[in-house]
Amino acid sequence: MERARAICLRLLTGTPRTRKQLADALRKREIPDEAAEEVLSRFEEVGLINDSAFADAWVESRHHGRGLARRALAQELRTKGVDSTLIDEAVSQLDSEQEEATARELVERKLRATRGLDRDKRLRRLAGMLARKGYSEGMALRVVRQALEEEGEETEFLGDEGF
Question: What does it do (predicted)?
């Protein structure tokens, strides 16, 4: 029990973790399930483990820091063992307007680096970058097209065949 408590406190120093991450760490260190369960529940009671706050902070930091879309954020939180209702609550903080504004900023930042490439290659490269960050194909293509048009590229004959 004491060892489980010490492991959890050490892991929580520095960076917040989900209950599942701590449970996995205790299992890996062969802490008996009953002791682990008791320590984790106690830590949750006193607020040292709070998956809801973890999910909110994760969404805030990863969206603003890395520009990740709701879909990518939800996937990351799933891999960290956050409950799906908490994930839904956390990612719903981002509305589609905020998501689209971030997509535009990401494209603006990368646009210059693609100058000189042919239009199709630019479209694919920029839309691909957004797709890897979890943006839908439709939004990615729309945002990239608008950015290219504002730059004076002809895009009306680009079909919706995808990338």
Answer: Modulates RecA activity.
